[in-house]
């Protein structure tokens, strides 16, 4: 390696040592969603037919609903 090349590398190395790393400033903000008034919840475990679970999952995918939302709506409608 030529002396000039070595001097350039040493100079670049020293510059890297002296310069503080410039990290980008990133702002983190929570995603704002419309939330309904939160109710207290309790856990419910039940055994239901597999075919019914499959139908619920398909319905949930088609309508962008969770199993919890489907179950809650169904129970509310049934108990009215």
Question: Topology of this protein?
Answer:
Elements (H helix, E strand, L loop, with lengths): L2 H16 L31 H14 L3 H13 L1
Written description of the protein model:
With 80 residues, the chain is mainly α. It has a domain at 46-80. It contains three helices and no strands. It has helices at residues 3-18, 50-63, 67-79. It is elongated and about 85 Å long. The model has no long low-confidence stretch (mean pLDDT 85).
For this entry, what is the oligomeric state of its chains?
A: single chain
Largest sheet: none
Which stretches of 5+ consecutive residues score pLDDT under 50? none
Fraction in helix: 40-55%
- Average pLDDT, all residues: 85
Query: How far do the termini sit from each other?
Result: 87 Å
Radius of gyration: 30 Å
User: How many beta strands in the DSSP annotation?
Assistant: 0
Individual helix count: 3
* Class of secondary structure makeup: mainly alpha
Order of helices and strands: HHH
The percentage of residues in β strands lies in under 5%
What is the 3D shape?
A: elongated
């Amino acid at each position: 390696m030529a002396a000039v090349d070595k001097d350039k590398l040493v100079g670049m190395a020293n510059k890297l040592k002296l310069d503080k790393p410039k990290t980008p400033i990133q702002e983190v903000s929570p995603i704002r969603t419309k939330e309904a008034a939160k109710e207290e919840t309790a856990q419910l475990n039940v055994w239901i037919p597999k075919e019914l679970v499959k139908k619920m999952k398909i319905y949930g995918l088609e309508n962008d609903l969770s199993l919890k939302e489907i179950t809650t709506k169904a129970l509310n409608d049934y108990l009215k």
